[in-house]
Amino acid sequence: MAPKWEYQVEIVGNFWRGARAEDIQRLLMQAAEDGWEPVELTPMQNSSRIMLVLRRATEAGSRRRREKTWP
């Protein structure tokens, strides 16, 4: 049976300061501790921010949303 996925979208960077490599790395490391894996990393059009899409497998039959422990 194929796994069911839940997704999380995070925006890294802000209007004044774009996304820094250290910020992206920190977010990815913290997310990985909770079982998230990156699916896509996309620069946002006309912006210095980056959109990061993460996913993790849900427990069989469970559609309950789990809390994240990172920003």
How would you name the oligomeric state of the polypeptide chains in this document? Answer: single chain
Q: Helix fraction?
A: 10-25%
Number of helices: 1
Q: For the largest sheet, list the strands in their spatial order.
A: 1-3-2
What is the makeup of the main sheet? 3 strands, antiparallel
Order of helices and strands: EHEE
Class of secondary structure makeup: alpha+beta
Low-confidence stretches: none
The number of distinct β-strands equals: 3
* Radius of gyration, CA atoms, in whole angstroms: 14 Å
How would you portray this structure in words?
With 71 residues, this protein is α+β, with helices and mostly antiparallel strands. It has one domain (5-57). Helices cover 18% and strands 32% of the residues. It contains one helix and three strands. It has one helix at 21-33; strands at residues 5-12, 37-43, 50-57. A three-stranded antiparallel sheet has the order 1-3-2, with helices on one face. Strand 2 and strand 3 (50-57) form a beta hairpin. The longest helix has 13 residues, at 21-33. The radius of gyration is 14 Å and the shape is elongated. The termini are far apart. The mean pLDDT is 86.
